Amino acid sequence: MRFAKYQGIGNDFVMLADPGDRITLNPELVRGLTDRRFGVGGDGVIRVAPGTGGGELVMDYYNSDGSAGEMCGNGIRCLALFALENGLTASTELAVETIAGLKVVEVLPGGHVRVDMGPPVFSPSQVPVLVDGADALHTSIDVGGTTVEAACLSMGNPHAVLFVDDLEGAPVTTLGPALENHDLFPNKTNVEFVRVESPELIRMAVWERGSGATLACGTGACAAAVAAHLLRDTKDRVRVELPGGELEIEWPGSLEEPGAVMMTGPAEKSFEGELDLGRFL
After folding, report:
1. Are residues 112 and 146 in the same domain?
2. Residues 6+ apart with CB under 8 A from 1
3. Residue 72 known to be catalytic
C-alpha cells in the first residue's frame, strides 16, 4: 500500500491513508514500520480514516514502541497537510477526532498549521498523577532517593515539566525514562526539560512516552508553555525552541479559566512510497 513520511520540526511519522477504514494497526506492525534500520523509520505511525464522531477525519496515532497515544501535536499538523495532498479532505480548516477529543486544525500559507489544542487539564486525577490537591503543578517526586520538582498537567496526554538552568546538561535519557515509568503516573508520562530564556522564549528537550528522546513534541511544547506562564511569568505568546525547530504557543489562560492552547508550526512531506504491510507482521 502507499505510505508517506512526514515530519514536524523533526518529529517524524509514517502516514497511512485509510479511506475505507480497513487497516488494523497492532504493536508488532507499528514497531516494524518505525524501525529505522529495517522499516520506514519514525517516531510514530498515523492512520487517517473518515470521521465517525463529529469530525471530518480520525487520527489513529501510535508511538514507536507500539503503544497508542491520545494525541500528537506535531503529528496532527502533518495529518492536515497529508490529508489535503491525498484528497482525504478539500478543507484547509477541519475537525479531527483524536482519543483526546476533537481538535480543529487550520492550514496556513507556507506549510504552517495552526491547531486548537484545547484547554490544559490540571486536576491530578485527570492528568493522571497520583497526588492530592486541586492541581499538580508543584509535585515532588522521589527518583532513586533524589527528589525532583515537576509541574504535572495534561494536554490530552500526561506531562511532567521540569525547569532547569542547564538544558544542554539535562539528564534527558536517564531521568526521562525514570519519570516516564514512575509509579506516580498510572498511564506513564511525557517529560519536558525546560529553560526559560526570556518572557517570550523558552527552550526545551523532551523524553516522549513510548518513543524516547525525540527532536520535538507538540503537546510537550504546549505543556511547557502553560507551566512557564503560570510558574515563571512568561507572556501569553511564547516561542518554544526544540532540537528540531520552533513552535509558537499562545495561551492567555489561568488555573481558574484555562481556555484553549493554540499551537502554530511547520510540517512537510519527506518522501512517499509503497510498502507491503505483511512483511512487518
Report:
1. no
2. 16, 23, 274, 275, 277
3. yes
